[in-house]
Design a protein that fits this description.
By secondary structure, the protein is α+β, with helices and mostly antiparallel strands. The chain contains 28 helices and 23 strands. It has five domains: 104 residues, DNA polymerase, domain 1 (Orthogonal Bundle); 170 residues, Reverse transcriptase/Diguanylate cyclase domain (Alpha-Beta Plaits, 2-Layer Sandwich); 108 residues, 2-Layer Sandwich (Dna Ligase, domain 1), CATH 3.30.1490.100; 74 residues, no CATH class; 130 residues, no CATH class. The protein binds a DNA duplex (13 and 18 nucleotides) through α2, α6, α12, β9 and β11.
Length: 772
DNA sequence: GGGCGATAACTAT
DNA sequence: TTCCAATAGTTATCGCCC
């Protein structure tokens, strides 16, 4: 990064806009020299080469645009900074002093935290295995992107996260070795074996990086025997010994930082690289001295953008954070200025337990490809991404509830579109149909053809599938047993609206449900449980939405008794601008889903009638079934009325009522190439005869279908370990596998505050990761 | 107007 | 010639509801 270069302009004045607008190109494209072995380089020359190699490209233009946007923000921030009165700054400084008083007592100097970082790990492994590479500039990766480089290459400005072709421009003799992950994993395991001797609960951050808390080790091996020992020296000896063991075992060197917390240990490990270590004594005086001289960019969590924000205020080293604390308080969000103060004070995690307890929050799969706008190709890529993601989730026993599709246009603009599924799943079918629907919607609503170079699928709101599966299984089992007992459930299409959703936590707010399968029974208090005649295991779900079936006698009587307190929403009718049908919905969200569906199907295949497998495909179908909507039918929407079967048969050639996920879709034009009928309720393949299908749908929605499901109850339990539970439209994975990895539902933290107009918007970073 | 869920966007390594 | 990844975590913002 230019910020640490002696020759770069930003060193002249922290108030200047760094490289922005200079002949060296946008600041966000400048070489980041914040890496061991990259000190004292001729950054001006290197940046010129980078600029020449990139200029004119879409990537360069994108970076320029982003930098211009950032520059505007930086200017606004500087203006705002100037506008504050002395009184305001004084007051803010006082508030920050108060914050310091609150933070300081949390300082814990009793732990000895070690950060181990393998030197140029991937490159070192390759050099070890091929001695001819040792004295030559080399990097590991591909022409697309380099993962790491050796020190000889770093002298030319070649570093990680740099495209290979730029590396070649900087150093024509650069040797690029492809990645061999299996090898790195093996070596990493060897390193971890050594670290485990010193702290069995060490926290691996990646293949080449880990934190250890050696406090207990020191106590066990040294302090308990001799209380007069200089524990600082002992810690250094122990860490040196550990590094030696690593080297003996792997023939690779490691560097280490020893400090009272993780933040400081991380900074320290970088100071004497390669093959060195740095010890920061656990006393306030040493820490304050160490931190105040520290460049802000050396702190983990402060990257390019954060650095530019701070530089704009004249803050280049950590001591400036303390000096300008009043400004920081006035300009940044609560989260940000809290983080800055923690950094300024040299605070961080002194225990690794909270890190070890971390749960995965999301899992994703993405790929970059040659830019294309071809629908079929993009759908194929999406499909393969979903398949891989589903497999990985199955392997890890995870299911998720929110699917996010990430798109990067050929101009490097990134978009993400998320959809919350009605039930957590890892099922490929749901993932793909949802991702595909989002993709098609984006393509249809984009101005002009949507050309993409990257697609990604991400699942979040994760939970452990075994855990979720067993609880859901219990719920369903309970539900079925209740149904068997009472035998009063009536499910016909007309009675779908009778399925109610009771939000007990909010005082029995009953809403009509459209989906019969979305049933989960929970009660908040014993009284509510009693009223609903729910088994005790449904207790304790605070403010949990309760979805009940009106046909269940006990529930029904409860609902009737309390009828007046329920606010049953009315359906409203809107005209769909795509299919011109009058659509009955409960809210705009439902209507939007209908619109999405119509847009997708109308645009992708005019003459082909399809039923989307979108979340509300049942709903869409039911609306149309009930309304016999001619408009829908004529506009390519599955709308055959069951009272109009003749007409439906006439449209059979139009592939009525098919589920896209289960038919062969010719992805090049989005039309259905083979006729297969899938029941939209139970998702099972049905006879290709439309009349039979219609009857089946009727049956599926009726009592007999429920009875059939009841018969399958035992089977459901028995097959739970096989995976997908075939409940209508709810591919919920119900596995009985045991796993030690628990994934409780990732609960969102409160939303950001600090909405003052003078706050710098968009300043969000991961600083707070380092504070619990 | 605060709490909260859903979604988009940003940032880091 | 090529023309800048993959993965994950956090924060911002909006809209709904009470």
């Amino acid at each position: 990064m230019a910020g640490s270069s002696k020759k770069s302009k930003d060193h002249k004045s922290g108030e200047e806009g760094l490289y922005a607008g200079t002949s060296l190109g946008p600041q966000n494209l400048a070489l980041n020299t914040n890496k061991a072995g990259m000190e004292g380089l001729d950054t001006e020359k290197i940046n010129e080469i980078i600029k020449n190699a990139s200029e004119g490209s879409r990537f360069y233009q994108h970076k320029q645009k982003r930098q211009q946007e950032l520059d505007i923000k930086l200017d606004q921030m500087k203006e705002a900074a100037k506008s504050f009165t002395d009184k305001q700054i004084k007051e803010a400084t006082k508030q920050m002093d108060q914050l310091v008083c609150e933070l300081e007592p949390g300082r814990d100097l009793s732990h000895t935290i070690v950060h181990i970082d393998m030197d140029m790990f991937y490159a070192a492994v390759e050099m070890r295995d091929d001695p001819t590479l040792r004295d030559k500039p080399m990097a590991v990766g591909g022409t697309g992107m380099l993962s790491t480089s050796n020190y000889a290459a770093r002298r030319f400005g070649v570093r990680a996260a740099m495209p290979g072709f730029i590396g070649k421009k900087l150093c024509p003799d650069l040797i690029i070795v492809p990645l061999h992950f299996d090898k790195y994993k093996k070596v990493s395991k060897q390193v971890q074996e050594v670290m485990a001797e010193y702290d069995p609960n060490f926290c691996a951050m990646s293949l080449d990086e880990a934190y250890l808390d050696i406090t207990q080790y020191l106590l066990n091996h040294y302090q308990s025997h001799d209380e007069d020992l200089d524990m600082g020296s002992v810690a250094q000896t122990v860490v040196a010994e550990m590094r030696e063991k690593i080297q003996t075992k792997t023939q690779l060197t490691a560097s280490a930082g020893i400090a009272p917390n993780t933040r400081l240990a991380k900074v320290c490990s970088d100071l004497n690289k390669p093959n060195g270590q740095y010890y920061l004594p656990p006393d306030l005086e040493s820490i304050k001295k160490f931190v105040s001289a520290l460049s802000i960019r050396k702190v983990s969590g402060i990257g390019n953008v954060s650095e530019q924000h701070l530089h704009a205020l004249g803050i280049t080293q950590c001591s400036h954070l303390m000096e300008k604390r009043g400004l920081l308080r006035l300009l940044f969000s609560d989260t940000s200025y809290h983080s800055f103060m923690n950094i300024a004070l040299g605070l961080g995690h002194s225990s690794l337990s909270s890190w070890n307890d971390r749960n995965r929050k999301s899992i994703s799969n993405e790929t970059t490809f040659k830019g294309t706008s071809e629908r079929g190709t993009l759908i194929k890529i999406t499909e393969s991404l979903c398949q891989e993601l589903a497999d990985e989730m199955d392997q890890k026993d995870i299911i998720g509830k929110v699917l996010t599709l990430k798109l990067k246009t050929i101009n490097f603009e990134i978009r993400s579109r998320a959809q919350t599924l009605s039930a957590p799943t890892s099922g490929f079918e749901v993932l793909f149909s949802t991702a595909r629907r989002i993709l098609l919607h984006e393509m249809n609503t984009n101005e002009g053809p949507l050309s993409l170079r990257l697609l990604g699928v991400r699942m979040s709101s994760l939970m452990n599938s075994a855990e979720a599966g067993s609880s859901r299984q219990a719920t369903l089992t309970q539900m079925f047993s209740k149904i068997t007992q009472e035998k009063t459930i009536i499910h016909t299409s007309e009675q779908v609206d009778d399925i109610l959703q009771v939000d007990i936590g909010n005082g029995a707010d009953v809403k009509c449900l459209s989906k019969i399968e979305e049933i989960g029974l929970h009660a908040k208090t014993p009284l509510e449980s009693e009223k609903l005649q729910l088994p005790s295991e449904f207790l304790g779900h605070n403010k949990t939405r309760v979805k009940v079936e009106s046909g269940t006698t006990s529930v029904k009587s409860f609902l009737l008794k309390n009828k007046e307190s329920f606010d049953t929403r009315k359906m409203e009718e809107y005209e769909c601008s795509v299919c011109s049908a009058q659509i009955r919905v409960r809210n705009m969200e439902e209507f939007n889903r209908h619109l999405d569906f119509c847009l997708e199907n109308h645009a992708s295949c005019d003459s082909t009638v399809k039923l989307s497998n979108c979340e509300d495909s049942n709903l869409n179908l039911l609306f149309c079934l009930n309304k016999s909507n001619a408009n829908c039918r004529s506009k390519g929407f599955t709308s055959e009325s069951r009272t109009d079967q003749t007409q439906m048969k006439n449209t059979r050639s139009q592939q009525s009522a098919v589920d896209q996920d289960s038919v062969n879709v010719d992805d090049n034009n989005g039309t259905v190439s083979e006729s297969l009928y899938i029941c939209p309720v139970c998702h099972k393949e049905q006879s290709s005869d439309v009349g039979s299908l219609t009857k089946h749908v009727d049956d599926c929605l009726s009592k007999s279908a429920i009875s059939e499901m009841l018969k399958d109850k035992d089977e459901l339990q028995g097959e739970s370990s096989k995976g997908t539970l075939s409940i209508p439209q709810k591919p919920v994975k119900a596995t009985s596998k045991n796993t030690s990895h628990l994934f409780p539902h990732g609960k969102r933290k409160g939303t950001g505050s600090g909405k003052s107009s003078k706050k710098v918007k968009g300043f969000c970073n991961t600083l707070d990761r380092y504070f619990s």
